[in-house]
From TrEMBL:
Catalytic machinery residues: 222
EC number in record: 1.4.1.21
Protein's name in the database: L-aspartate dehydrogenase
Function: Specifically catalyzes the NAD or NADP-dependent dehydrogenation of L-aspartate to iminoaspartate.
Amino acid sequence: MPKDPQKIAIIGFGAMARSLQASLTKTQSRLAIRATLLPREFHASAELPDSIHLCGTVEELIEWAPSLVVECASHEAVRHAVPELLRAGIDVVVVSVGSLSDGALLADLEKAAQSGKSRLTVASGAIGGLDVLRSAKSAGLDTVIYTGSKPPAAWKGTPADDEFLLSDLRERTVIFEGTALDASTLYPKNANVTAAVALAGIGFERTKVTLIADPTSTSNTHQVEAGGAFGRFSILLENRPLPDNPKTSWLAALSIEQCITRHFQNIEL
Ligand SMILES: NC(=O)c1ccc[n+]([C@@H]2O[C@H](COP(=O)([O-])OP(=O)(O)OC[C@H]3O[C@@H](n4cnc5c(N)ncnc54)[C@H](O)[C@@H]3O)[C@@H](O)[C@H]2O)c1
């Protein structure tokens, strides 16, 4: 039976959810978000349009019977809500990808999806080229290196803030070099991108991560380089932020829209 594209629900209602909602409305898409899962403690931060039904618990959302749930909230929300939804037979798209660096959670999600005969899709978010990593790995990938660069002020409140006088940096400075596993733990604000690269390619322990504070640049960049039996690959992304939220990249919100569109297509383009 075809699933109803007018019965999509979202977990959270922050910057990305609002951007997605606005974009679907503006383009008069056949897809519509009609409900949100927002426990009471998060109500105050959301400005919900009247067209969106508010569910305070996962049980209420399951009862509302969404055709697809899109998680746009937090790592905690993935842990708390997604396994139950999958067990109830509801497909889910996850954007807080950093949560999946927790192997135990990933195993739980797999079990839940098997038991509910449902599907979890990981949005590519702020990074690209994941299709290449996924395809190339079956012939053998030797190296995958992710390099993330941001202006020094963007690393405030991270371990780099203790090690470097960020405001005094005058040249590009490497603030972290290590595995994607360590990067996910030490730099959680970067965890979504490092996790997406690690999951698509050769895993958290073999993916190398370099993080850079660059006082000569005002933008955030993401570079992925990979080599293996297939050949070599390199991609550089310079993402613009969402017009109304400087901390979230526009591409991440657009990637969710793409994920949802594909979910309801008969031919996945
Ligand atoms: N994959 C990527 O490349 C990528 C890029 C940017 C952001 N993200 C992730 O996407 C998520 C949303 O980003 P955003 O910019 O919209 O954030 P935001 O802070 O603007 O909005 C998050 C919303 O979720 C709500 N929320 C938090 N915990 C919740 C929970 N347990 N249950 C229900 N609602 C909850 C908050 O109240 C808020 O409304 C974050 O986890 C962020 O890390 C991923």
